[in-house]
Amino acid sequence: MRAPDPWIHGRPGDRDDAVDPCEVLARAYESVGEELDRDLEIVEGAIPRELAGTYYRNGPGRVALGGERYGHPFDGDGMVLRFALEGGRVRYRNRYVRTRELLDEERAGRIVHRGFGTQRPGGLRANLLRGRIKNAANTSVLHHGGALYALWEGGWPHRLDPVSLATIGRDDLDGALAPESRLERALGAEWPLCAHPSVDPATGELWAFGTVPGRTPRIAVYRFDREGARLGRRLVEMPRAAFVHDFVLTETHAVLIVPPIAFDLGKAVLGLASPAASLHRDATAPTTIVLVPRDGGPVRTIETKPGFAFHHINGWDDGRTVVIDTLRMDELSMGSLDVLDPASIRSARVVPTTPTRMTIDLVRGRVEEEARLHVDAELPTIDPRRRGRATRYAWAIARPHGWSALPIPAIAKLDLDRRASQLRDLAPDLPGEPLFVPRSSTGAEDDGWLLSVVYRAREHRSELWVLDARDLSTIAREVLPHHVPPGFHGTFVATG
Q1: Closest by CA position to 114, among listed 71, 155, 146
Q2: In the β-sheet with 218-224, what is the strand arrangement from edge to edge?
Q3: Helices (H) and strands (E) in the chain, counts
């Protein structure tokens, strides 16, 4: 293996700074009309035979319908990709998740549901008192207890057939997501599941959370065994109706980081604004860390300085402290975003992230924050064997130094201990989340592969890339039969 280069710009001549990245992103988000099932052609390298299993990835496959556009890519209809890797070959399949909202809109031929960032066409009259928000089923995928689910954090997950990707239906996960009160059930309320559940590699338990509707801001913390059976559900009061997307699972705690970014529930529920447009910052509020003991002990809250994070890298504890590595933002810029319009993309405000270590002193009730790296990164992944344990490495998509556009064209390896990073710049192409797959059960933390769906700008197509996680070098590239819009999160299920 060659020595890692601290800054890799793809292959010589690959980068084309004359290409407008906003034009590239707008074209990448064009809708996918085909649902296919076929073998992929390998155009570079070879798939390692020991890389055997199924890679699933979710994301919006359609962001416009009937000449109307969704107000945010978060509302695009979920399309799950399946890559079956076996014997050095890859079988590809893509399917839309048949949510009731997708079926409603396909029958109507236009947008008929409100979304997280989308109001129904027709102004105030068309949205007033329409509190139900479209379940886009487009954010992530979960494979647990032999079942596959498409996740979206505002409602129930959709169960899918793991092979055909056919939609089986909405699932309350053994009753864990069923509302408590008769009134909630009568109103058709759903207790949602987050898009970032976490599996403890030692116990096989699945932990997750969901924001529960009601007068008092609450979050439900869910626990399931390795087979998917419900073990418990705990309600935790929140300091505000905050936007909480991710959480951290350590050996002893489920940790929720509650930012001073909250929904205006009145505007959102009444239909006066989309939930995304109702988000606002409470200038007087801190960030609140909510520590929920896994053994059922009392919940504890500790305040720290304001900030926001979409995604956390990992967390661990030693009895006296809880350590969390996160991607910190000083603020959140959220509103409408027409990803089919380069001008809208160009005008979007980009708030950089900073890989930051939060050390929570449980004895003194204090939090110290320290920037570990100055790399603007997102969609982080780690070695799943290290979930809840001390971690050195993470992988993410990243913006090269000096890059200020919204599209993110690079893949990064982050060494959080040595505070070093490697970056592979693919511009004008757009990589997706680099998912780490360990080479073996006993190998080193960075001994494995990265799987990423990369949009190739010049060809208007997508490819599955297999990279060496140690140095970001290319092991194999496989061509998809069509392009795939930039997606969000995935999972890998090893054979056997």
Answers
A1: 71
A2: 198-199, 206-212, 218-224, 230-237
A3: 7, 35
Based on the number of CB atoms within 10 Å of its own CB, is 331 exposed (0-12), middle (13-18) or buried (19 or more)?
middle
Global confidence as pTM: 0.94
198-203 long-range contacts (CB < 8 A, ≥24 apart) are 198/247, 198/248, 198/249, 198/387, 198/388, 199/144, 199/384, 199/387, 200/249, 200/251, 200/387, 200/388, 201/384, 201/385, 201/386, 201/387, 201/388, 202/251, 202/388
pLDDT digits (tens, 9 = 90+) for 314-334: 999 998 999 999 999 998 877
131: confidence class by pLDDT, cuts 50, 70, 90: confident
Strands 253-258 and 248-249: antiparallel
Q: Sketch the domain layout of the chain as residue ranges.
A: 21-494
Q: What would the two tokens of residue 19 be?
A: 């290409």
Q: Which tens digits make up the pLDDT trace of 56-113?
A: 999 999 999 999 999 999 999 999 999 999 999 999 999 999 999 999 999 999 999 9
SS3 342: helix
Starting at the earlier edge strand, list the strands of the sheet with 312-317.
312-317, 321-328, 354-361, 366-371
Half-sphere exposure of residue 287: CA atoms within 13 angstroms, side-chain side: 25
DSSP-derived 3-state class of residue 265: helix
CA angle 261, 267, 273 (to 5 degrees): 90
* Cβ(369)–Cβ(357) below 8 Å: yes
Report the candidate in 56, 60, 61 with the shortest Cα–Cα distance to residue 35: 61
Q: For 416-473, what is the HEC assignment?
A: CCCCEEEEEECCCCEECCCEEEECCCCCCCCCEEEEEEEEECCCCEEEEEEEECCCCC
